[in-house]
Design goal:
Pfam families: Chlor_dismutase (PF06778). With 135 residues, this protein is an alpha+beta fold. Helices cover 35% and strands 31% of the residues. The protein has a four-stranded antiparallel β-sheet with strand order 2-3-1-4.
């Protein structure tokens, strides 16, 4: 009889879909827009740094359609890290010009099939293949 494959809870994933409030964004001066974008870039830089350290992963996708304008996909080891990340972004001036359209939390389930074909520990390797669009 075959053995049941052991699975492990992996990384927590926050799926955050947002739309941009174009009316409020257009009312900003060019200087204020630049300040807001710099604050966003600071968040992106911090998230990229965590990815380089293999402490998480983040991807940003453009949404085609009417429901949202973009989608953040964040993977972290703990729910506390995701909560901190979400709160930090929500406190940015850029976030003031976005509306959360939809979000949900998921947990990546890992099986030991991965570890049989590789010496790497899947819990230590959260990677998202980035791109501009997602289906």
């Amino acid at each position: 009889m075959n053995k049941v494959t052991q699975t492990l809870d992996g990384w927590y994933t926050l799926h955050d879909f947002r739309s941009i409030n174009w009316n409020s964004w257009k009312k900003l001066s060019i200087k204020d827009r630049q300040l807001d974008l710099n604050e966003l870039r600071s968040c992106l830089k911090q998230w990229g740094s965590l990815e380089e350290q293999k402490l998480g992963s983040t991807a940003i996708y453009t949404i085609v359609g009417q429901k949202a304008d973009f989608y953040f996909l964040h993977m972290r080891d703990t729910l506390e890290e995701l909560n901190e990340l979400e709160n930090k972004f929500n406190k940015t001036s850029f976030a003031d010009h976005t509306t959360p359209v939809y979000s949900y939390l998921s947990v990546v389930e890992l099986s030991n099939y991965i570890t049989k074909s590789s010496d790497s520990d899947p819990l230590q390797n959260p990677e998202i293949i980035g791109g501009h669009f997602i289906c």
